[in-house]
Amino acid sequence: MKKTNAKIKNEAINSSELILAIEELEKEKGIDKDSLLESIQTALVTAYKRNFDSAENVKVTMDGVTGEIHVYAEKEVVATAKDIENDKLQISLEDAKKINKKLDVGDVAEIEQVPKEFGRIAAQTAKQVIIQKIREDSREFLFNEFSQRKGGIVVLDLGKLEGIMPKREQIPTERYKVNDKIRAYIVDVVKGEKGNPQVIVSRAHNDFVRKLFELEIPEIYEGVIELKSVSRDPGNRSKVAVYSPNENIDPVGSCVGQKGIRIQNIINELSGEKIDVIEWNEDPSIYISAALLPAQVLAVDIHDDEKFAQVIVPDDQLSLAIGKSGQNARLAAKLTNWKIDIKSESQFRQMLEQASQEETTEEENPEETE
Hints:
Distance between the termini: 97 Å
Helix content: 40-55%
Largest sheet: 5 strands, mixed
CATH architecture of the largest domain: 2-Layer Sandwich
Mean pLDDT: 83
Low-confidence stretches: 4-14
């Protein structure tokens, strides 16, 4: 089926200034020009039908260079005038030939229309479409931009950016005020009401600490040092395990920095949250001992099948190893992904003595144990 434009002289609507404005929007806001022109053309069809003739099958085109707008009534070519069932949708072959000799039965003739006052209506419609398109594309642009940055850090201005930091994602010791500028980890991006993007951010997430280390420690960002694991009690304490395959590099020292300047920058960002940086080791007994720092460890008994570790510490180190409310032991367990049971040296000896006594009793009274 061929479509041929009718060669009828028309006072085309010159909208060169509109084209210039659209091109500026494409440069400044990244709004696709072709997409915007297509939206304007679709809206103009609706505007024409609403203001002139809803029964006609019309097509509106807008020149992407000059901005000229043309309106065409599309009619199917039928053999004779007697075959016309709807003169708004059909045209006889004889009349169609007057428009274009190449037209044949079954083709679509495009007859240009010259509606009065359509220039004014077109300008108003185009303006409305552009405003709506700017809103939609701005929302989509923000959604896509922050979706790509998911898992990264963003400087969040709570007075301007539409972001959400749920209570669970906040550091309990911090208080935020309108217009505060803070760093936060992008957890997710969702579309809220009316399609507006909502950025879910966090300062309590483990990966927030991970990203801060990547920003502050060049060796981690470059991959020279690996950040193996992070465990956190947000606002109070974090433990971070680092490793370098290069024996000439001290991963802990590199993270702490000269005079502690590197780690202090991260601590300041976390509002004073203490950070223990320990060296990761593939030997779980060495790794677990390091994870329990600052407590000293005498021995670690590993049970690989259960991923369970029995740790023995000096009597005066027990409370330090466990930590206030069990914090140090809990963070060490999360960091290493091992179940850890801590006993003081005295407790361990008592446990051994009790086990020995039970064995002796069983040997002396074998009938009672059967």
